[in-house]
Amino acid sequence: MHSAVYKKPALLGGGRVKNVERVSRSLKKGSMSPHCRGSAKLQAQVRVGGLVSSAKPTGVRTPVHWRTKAIVQTMADAELAEPISAEKEAALKAAEVELAREPLSLIKEFGAAGKFFVTPLTLVAGAKHKMFFNRAWGQFCTSNRRETCMIGGFNNWTAGEFRTQMHHVETPGMEGDWWMCEFEVPENVYNMRLLFSDGAENFDKQDDGQDYTLVPDFAPMKEEC
Fold it and tell me: Where is each Carbohydrate binding module family domain found (predicted)?
């Protein structure tokens, strides 16, 4: 069993939901002094992305009442959100470290393993990755087109498709014709399907003609998506 990391949403003034509801009732009754009323309004505001929200939705006449409801909803959503395990948090941090490495050093370390590799070597749901493809070993290595791209999709192509241009990587003194791109794996995916292309009708797939398939760590079961 792994420990979980959980953070409650921050409120200005350190107020709790039940206190904010009491403040809202007092403001409506007019039983608070002007000084206390101003302080109470500050505590009833919601911090969103580091800024204090001052927006007012259409049809709501009492900003304080709306902000109180927003706090209640924010904390309710946080309670329902699945906590991040310590193992996944460590994997996300490791992915950031790998992403910052120089492409040439990654090719030197992992390039001999096959036609392509991804770093981190195992996909992590919710993290960014780099894909490296050795076109010299690809099925369109003799194509006159120098364009190289990766075509990918998630959940057996049912959760969207993307096409990413790959960039050539200079590898002096090394064999191969290496290309790379960056991509991100969403949270709620159970697999990633992909293939490579020269931008025309030439593709690189598995020898049996099927797309390549990668399975992320910390991914939900197919039945859950």
Answer: 152-192
